[in-house]
């Protein structure tokens, strides 16, 4: 599959982003004459993350991008030759040089789909040697993306639909690739934007950002702006010296707040003026550099009201320390009284943004009824997923040469389901999700309105179900190396994720001690599992 000129393809993943044992197995397959045996692998997880009952599928676009660019360069092959036995047949390296993904077929859940344990996120089929080599990179691309998207979805469920959620985690991320992945898939999971500029350039994530404490502390108050003049927002009328106007407003604001004009820090005010001159239509104040009540708030109000006289409206304030909920309530109250005092009604609804190590518990507090917080920036808890740092996806062989393969092991939880499979979601008459069914690909699909006997995973007996609707889960995206249909945009996948979450029942959407969503096997697949287990025990 020829890769188009896509700078992100070169930056995302390369063929040698893999474990060495993939290469040693590839040599073993080649020596055994099995490099071209048709094989199928499935990528899935065994338990839902964070103690919840669902995950969101993500990373498919990155996988397709990786496959389209897959080709070992001469330097790659030369390195592999240096780590493999020196007597390795040179013909093996010629085989590696010729590899591309033209024989690979991928079926997968659409990005943003609800995903449950044991249901494949990806099915990858093609020549045995090649699809084995793909294991580690595909796991790397899907596992973290899906974990981050699920984490973001949980945070969105806690925050509710009205609060704006922003990813501020780039500086806390596990390296540049982790930062880009987190910013991308936190947006897919329900965040509204990110501070990560590269995610905006490469992925189309809305980018946000204003100023840090360093900007404020860099000013002492003695600085003189080279051009303090600002024209009215309407574009008509004389330009006004904003610095002079702010000083006049400061006296009025301090009198209203019961402060002396010497209380607010002059350097902070100079920083706010400088920022307002650069961004008169997007002025936002960072209030807690010195003292919120005695400095940040009066300095912000003085600048905001000066801008208001010229027809501009400040877009917000941010708090980054202290009791964020309490401070936001106090600030909102002062915004209201100040708006009434100076006949600036827009000031009442200036958004209040908060940040500072916000986790699920603090987010629930900030999102409670009566909270005056409008925008919440989350960094460490978003990008590092501290409650569970790995989704634990696996990539298992299920078929070779059309024959099912099954891993039994000493640990029942690690046993795999054999054979090439199809997956379906069964729904009730009201559109509610009943369960997911896995069956062999050769079986006819379940039919709406028809009774179906299934084996819930972990159950000792079968049961009957009659779905009102049936949805196929695994879509064909890549066939023999060719993209079958356009991939949805990131924004489209984000909207689909929110739609998917809305279909979960409250019991399954609950974040603590949720009801477990049921995944079941068809009778034929259950019989195959039983037969292979019995055969292995002989």
From TrEMBL:
Stretches assigned to the Nicotinate phosphoribosyltransferase C-terminal domain: 421-528
Cited InterPro entries: Aldolase_TIM, NAPRTase_C, NAPRTase_N, Nic_PRibTrfase-Fam, Nic_PRibTrfase_pncB, Nicotinate_pribotase-like_C
A biological-process GO annotation: NAD+ biosynthetic process via the salvage pathway
UniProt KW Cell membrane keyword: no
SUPFAM superfamilies per record: Nicotinate/Quinolinate PRTase C-terminal domain-like, Nicotinate/Quinolinate PRTase N-terminal domain-like
Reactions performed catalytically: 5-phospho-alpha-D-ribose 1-diphosphate + nicotinate + ATP + H2O = nicotinate beta-D-ribonucleotide + ADP + phosphate + diphosphate
Cofactor: Mn(2+); Mg(2+)
PANTHER family xrefs: NICOTINATE PHOSPHORIBOSYLTRANSFERASE
Role according to the record: Catalyzes the first step in the biosynthesis of NAD from nicotinic acid, the ATP-dependent synthesis of beta-nicotinate D-ribonucleotide from nicotinate and 5-phospho-D-ribose 1-phosphate. Helps prevent cellular oxidative stress via its role in NAD biosynthesis.
Name of this protein: Nicotinate phosphoribosyltransferase
Species name: Molossus molossus (Pallas' mastiff bat)
């Amino acid at each position: 599959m020829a890769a188009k000129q896509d700078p992100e393809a070169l930056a995302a993943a390369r063929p040698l982003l893999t474990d060495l044992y993939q290469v040693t197995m590839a040599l073993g397959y080649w020596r055994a004459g099995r490099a071209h045996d048709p094989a199928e692998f499935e990528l899935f997880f065994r338990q839902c993350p964070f103690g919840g009952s669902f995950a969101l599928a993500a990373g498919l676009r990155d996988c397709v991008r990786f496959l389209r660019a897959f080709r070992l360069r001469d330097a790659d092959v030369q390195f592999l030759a240096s780590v493999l036995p020196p007597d390795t047949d040179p013909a093996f390296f010629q085989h590696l040089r010729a590899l591309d993904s033209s024989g690979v077929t991928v079926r997968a859940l659409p990005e943003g789909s609800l995903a449950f344990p044991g249901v494949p996120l990806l099915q990858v089929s093609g020549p045995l040697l090649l699809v084995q080599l793909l294991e580690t990179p595909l796991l790397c691309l899907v596992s973290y993306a899906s974990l981050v998207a699920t984490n973001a979805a949980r945070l969105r469920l806690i925050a509710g639909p009205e609060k704006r959620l922003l990813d501020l985690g780039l500086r806390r991320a596990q390296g540049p690739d982790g930062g880009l992945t987190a910013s991308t898939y936190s947006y897919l999971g329900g965040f509204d934007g990110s501070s990560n500029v590269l995610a905006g350039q490469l992925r189309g994530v809305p980018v946000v950002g204003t100023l840090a404490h360093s900007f404020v502390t860099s000013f002492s108050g003695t600085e003189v702006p080279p051009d303090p003049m600002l024209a009215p927002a309407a574009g008509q009328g004389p330009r006004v010296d904003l610095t002079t106007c702010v000083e006049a407003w400061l006296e009025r604001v301090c009198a209203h707040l019961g402060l002396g004009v010497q209380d607010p820090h002059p350097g902070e005010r100079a920083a706010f003026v400088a920022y307002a001159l650069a961004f008169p239509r997007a002025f936002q104040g960072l209030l807690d550099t010195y003292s919120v009540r005695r400095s940040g708030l009066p300095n912000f109000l003085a600048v905001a009201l000066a801008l208001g006289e010229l027809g501009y409206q400040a877009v917000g304030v941010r708090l980054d320390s202290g009791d964020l909920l309490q401070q936001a309530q106090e600030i909102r109250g002062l915004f209201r009284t100040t708006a009434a005092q100076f006949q600036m009604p827009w000031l009442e609804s200036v958004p209040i943004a908060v940040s500072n190590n916000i986790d699920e518990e603090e987010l629930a507090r900030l999102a409670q009824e009566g909270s005056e917080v409008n925008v919440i920036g989350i960094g460490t808890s978003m990008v590092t997923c501290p409650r569970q740092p790995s989704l634990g996806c696996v990539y298992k062989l299920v078929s070779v040469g059309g024959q099912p393969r099954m891993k039994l092991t000493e640990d029942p939880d690690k046993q795999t389901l054999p054979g090439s499979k199809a997956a379906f979601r069964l729904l009730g008459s009201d559109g509610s999700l009943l369960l997911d069914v896995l069956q062999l690909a050769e079986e006819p699909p379940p039919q709406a309105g028809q009774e179906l006997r299934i084996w819930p995973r972990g159950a000792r007996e079968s049961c009957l179900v009659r779905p009102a609707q049936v949805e196929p889960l695994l879509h064909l995206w890549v066939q023999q190396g060719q993209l079958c249909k356009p991939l949805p945009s990131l924004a489209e996948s984000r909207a689909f994720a929110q739609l998917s979450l809305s279909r979960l029942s409250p019991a399954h959407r609950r974040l603590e001690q949720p009801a477990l969503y049921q995944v079941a096997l068809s009778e034929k697949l259950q019989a195959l599992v039983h037969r292979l287990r019995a055969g292995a025990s002989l």
